[in-house]
Amino acid sequence: MPEPIVNGDPVLLIDDLHAGTGEADEILKGVSLAVAPGEVHVLMGPNGSGKSTLAKTLLASPNYEVSSGRVVLKGEDITDLTTEERAQRGLFLGFQHPEEFAGVTVLNFLRQAMSARKGFDMSVLEVRLALMDWMKRLSVDPQFMDRYLNDGFSGGEKKLSEVLQLDLLEPDMAILDETDSGLDIDALRIVSEGINEVRRERPEMGVLLITHYQRILRYLTPDVVHIFVGGRIVESGGLELAERLEKEGYEAFRGAEIRQ
Predict the structure, then answer these.
(1) What are the chain's domains?
(2) Which of 91, 94, 121, 161 has a CA that sits 20 to 30 A from residue 183's CA?
(3) Which helix (H) or strand (E) holds 83?
(4) What is the pTM of this model?
(5) pLDDT tens, 83-134?
(6) Residues 6+ apart with CB under 8 A from 123
(7) Gap between the Cα atoms of 256 and 87, Å rounded
(8) CA 124 to CA 208: how far, in whole Å?
(9) CB neighbours (10 Å) of residue 205?
(10) How far apart (Å, rounded) are the C-alpha atoms in residues 94 and 159?
(11) What's phi and psi for 37, nearest 5 deg?
């Protein structure tokens, strides 16, 4: 059994991770970072840099193969675990483009997911009451739970659905892949406030937010900002690094990619 996290030991450790679609196509070229309990890390990079590949590799997508390195969650090496096993252990991925599930209500989906996370079957009533509580906190129409998951949802509704899942599944580590993608300023504020509400409820939860833009950082303040270019982290720092990126663009960091 893994040792429990104490005194700020990483909730998520990515150690020299190399991965791609096969031996001849390496996309992740030695990614390393450590997220302590309660920390928010932001990964910023241009299109094609490998950000989404990292997110999908962390959730064991069969489309990507790890050639070396490891992923450690709460002291346990999960590199060889399946997607379901990682989720059960407390790893959550918010998708850039959530899939639609016609015929599966938000309530029924969450009942299945929560039962798998907790390791026992939860009743419809238990899940309904928990969902109603969080929908009230986030000012969501109660009828939302009876709609088919993401079927006909707007971009903001899809991301709000992801936040509700984040609320109820109680993960130890959340990977949010371009949660701000496709949101107008009002939807971005609502979704960001939802994420912050979860963090207030679960202050030990770590967050790795993957994004192109600085705008979500107005609402979700990072502890560490990483610049990701060419399949690796080329520079890390505080919020000032995101501000520098806003002024200079990714071209200012491409030399670092070549030197590494």
Answers:
(1) 12-259 (3.40.50.300)
(2) 91
(3) helix 83-88
(4) 0.86
(5) 999 999 999 988 767 677 788 898 998 898 888 888 889 999 999 999 999 8
(6) none
(7) 34
(8) 31
(9) 23
(10) 8
(11) -55, 130
